[in-house]
Design goal:
The protein is mainly β and 128 residues long. The chain has one helix and eight strands, in the order E-E-H-E-E-E-E-E-E. The strands form two sheets. It has a six-stranded antiparallel sheet with strand order 1-6-3-4-5-2, with no helix packed on it.
Length: 128
């Protein structure tokens, strides 16, 4: 199981509740999770109502089969205070994303920057 990121992945889903998302196929011009991410691999995802009022970003696991699914393993942020969103009705868009809290990027000076916090420990040797 590997973490895979890929471009232009967008599928629809219909009312998955708070459980595993049944993927209904790629939107025209986009790739599917099954073809771009692959079976048992993980990816960062966003699922959102097409109206935009409910949304969730997280880490999920793709399973290929009949149907293809996306298990919502870890929620990173959501319109439900960071918890799973209950998509009870309507159609949702599901796509691969690169969450801000997981990003590393080049700043305006060309230096690598990371959002969030990290720790670094340096131990100097007494040997000369």
């Amino acid at each position: 199981m590997a973490l895979i990121l890929a471009d232009r992945i967008l599928e629809t889903a219909s009312a998955p509740g708070t459980g595993t998302v049944t993927l209904l196929g790629a939107v025209t011009g986009y790739q599917s999770f099954a073809s771009a991410i692959g079976n048992t691999n993980t990816t960062y995802y966003t699922i959102a109502d097409q109206s935009g009022s409910n949304w969730e970003c997280g880490l999920g696991t793709v399973t290929t089969g009949s149907p293809n699914t996306l298990a919502r393993t870890t929620v990173l942020a959501s319109s439900n205070s960071g918890s799973l969103v209950n998509f009870a009705s309507g159609t949702q868009n599901v796509f691969v994303t690169y969450p801000a809290e997981k990003s590393v990027y080049l700043n305006a000076s060309g230096n690598v920057s990371a959002l969030g916090t990290f720790s670094f420990q340096y131990t100097a040797s007494a040997e000369l």
